[in-house]
Specification:
The protein has helices at residues 16-29, 33-45, 49-61, 69-82. By secondary structure, the chain is mainly alpha-helical. The protein has one domain (16-82). Helix 1 (16-29) packs across helix 2 (33-45).
Length: 83
């Protein structure tokens, strides 16, 4: 999946020792400080295990017709071929 173009800017102020920690980690990972910050933001904004589990519970509650996997696969393939 191609990476989206980065368009928005964020400015933050840090204590010098925190910035040095980020620079050291970026060097260790062979990336930029911005890359480290983006990685941290992605991690912070990631869907939690609880949210994933709740989504699975909701899917399990659906009364959708579902056959065993072999039957379901045949149905999917038949529908795909009919398009």
């Amino acid at each position: 999946m191609p990476e989206k173009r980065l368009e928005s800017r964020l400015e933050i102020r840090l204590q010098p020792e925190k910035l040095q920690m980020l620079k050291d980690e970026a060097a260790r990972k062979n990336t930029s400080v911005g890359g480290i910050v983006r990685e941290a933001i992605e991690s912070y904004c990631a869907v939690s295990a609880e949210e994933k589990l709740e989504a699975v519970r909701k899917l399990a509650e659906l009364k959708a017709p579902a056959a065993n996997w072999d039957d379901m696969k045949r149905e999917i393939e038949a529908e795909y071929k009919s398009d």
